[in-house]
Amino acid sequence: MNAVVTFALLIPRNLCVFILRIYRAVISPLYGDVCRYYPSCSHYTLQAIQQHGVIRGVWLGSRRLLRCHPWAEGGIDDIPARRHDRYQITRFGFVIAASHERG
Amino acid sequence: MDLFAFFGNLLWPIKWVIEAILVAFHEILTFFGMDADAGLTWVLSIVGLVLVVRAALIPVFVRQIKSQRRMMEVAPQLKKIQDKYKGKKDQFSREAMSRETMAMYKNAGTNPFSSCLPLLLQMPIFFGLFSVLRNAQLEGNAPGVGLLNAELSESFGTSSLFDIAPLHLAISTAEGNVAVIITAVIMVILMTGSQFITQLQIMSKNQSAEMKASPMYRQQRIMLYLLPLVFAFSGFTFPLGVMFYWLVSNFWTMGQQFLVIRNMPTPGSEAALAREARLAKRNQRKGIVEETPDAGTIVIEEPKNPQREQPVSKNRAKKKQGKKK
């Protein structure tokens, strides 16, 4: 039961992850490496959505996009860390319930 | 569709400016006696729009070139990082490598990338032209957000190039209109050609040996052969009017690139050597003797030697330091 709820809760997040993965596979390569930051804006947003959920993730991602312009200093800019990870991330990037739940 | 509406609102100011520029050029051309409803007038207005937009983006471009110049200074550090991760192709090593590279750029106060903003700025122009021409196709001629009123919008949307190729049609919507198909195909060929020349110019002439060894270079090469497909697809889907914007923009990039490579080549690239040779020749012609014969012979005999001296001399300096210790 718990697993079903978790899965349903994670659907919006995983939908965004899927869209971003498609974007990063198809559209990003079209203009090559241009981002002044590491991780790049799309990677940053992907991580933010994976770890903080859609609402906070999109907010963080949008703020990053605004920070990224030709006059920005650039450099390393990681997403704010989450205190504890409840979920596990698959190789593709989908967020799933951790397999070793302590209950 | 809601997503489009959201972006539409977000891009409102940019759209307004675009329309203003487009209408301004249209007014000027009409003032000088061109037919207000002719396709050619609107195409030339689009050309004017490209000129203004690209001219406005020149500072961004210049900044990018300047930081690329400074890349030469950090080349030894970059090489060190690349050597450290040589042969390590797994995801974690590669991520660690780009992280270190980025940190190094930041320390050096330079960055070869221009961010995606210049690309993003061109997007609303695309969307704007696209929606105006699309509206015209769907009959109900909705006016733009600013100076492009209903009347002008209809004129733009219903205009045909030389009265045979409507600007709002694409190959997919042409329904057998031969003029549209031929125009679109010619444009796709020209776009592919100009893009090819631009990329080849950069890749074969304006990149130093370090750049050519980087994975970025390989990526660029893949792009070179992928883009014709993208253009063919866009020629199929996008209206002629949008294609004209893209085509002229491509031509601008090509010209800009040519001038940059000729006059401000990347140090250590073939183009830089060609420029040195050219300058030497000109000095000779003017009768300035100095060390020109010297430079001339070096360039002819071993074109790559004088350039490699830069990193070597730095290494030497480091070796000396090492010996002192």
Automatic annotation (TrEMBL), chain A:
Q: What keywords were assigned to this record?
A: Cell membrane, Membrane
Q: Which InterPro entries match?
A: Membr_insert_effic_factor_YidD (IPR002696)
Which cellular components does GO assign to this protein? plasma membrane
Query: Where in or outside the cell is it found?
Result: Cell membrane
- The highest taxon in the source lineage is Bacteria
Pfam family name, one = YidD
Classify the protein's membrane topology as the record does: Peripheral membrane protein
Record function comment: Could be involved in insertion of integral membrane proteins into the membrane.
Q: Which PANTHER family match?
A: MEMBRANE PROTEIN INSERTION EFFICIENCY FACTOR-RELATED
Family membership, please give it.
Belongs to the UPF0161 family.
The name under which this protein is listed is: Putative membrane protein insertion efficiency factor
What organism is the protein native to? Salinibacterium amurskyense
Automatic annotation (TrEMBL), chain B:
Tell me the GO molecular function terms. membrane insertase activity
UniProt-annotated location(s):
Cell membrane; Membrane
Skewed-composition ranges (Basic residues): 315-325
Q: Which InterPro entries match?
A: YidC/ALB3/OXA1/COX18, YidC/Oxa/ALB_C, YidC_ALB_C
Main subcellular localisation: membrane
One matching Pfam family, short form?
Answer: 60KD_IMP
- Highest taxon of source: Bacteria
Residue spans crossing the bilayer: 12-34, 40-62, 112-133, 178-202, 223-248
Keyword RNA-binding belongs to the record: no
User: Which segments carry the region annotation Disordered?
Assistant: 283-325
Role played: Required for the insertion and/or proper folding and/or complex formation of integral membrane proteins into the membrane. Involved in integration of membrane proteins that insert both dependently and independently of the Sec translocase complex, as well as at least some lipoproteins. Aids folding of multispanning membrane proteins.
Matching entries from PANTHER family are given as:
CYTOCHROME C OXIDASE ASSEMBLY PROTEIN COX18, MITOCHONDRIAL, OXA1
Subunit structure comment from the entry: Interacts with the Sec translocase complex via SecD. Specifically interacts with transmembrane segments of nascent integral membrane proteins during membrane integration.
Similarity comment text for this entry? Belongs to the OXA1/ALB3/YidC family. Type 1 subfamily.
Mind telling me which NCBIfam families this protein's record contains? PRK01315.1, yidC_oxa1_cterm
Protein name as annotated = Membrane protein insertase YidC
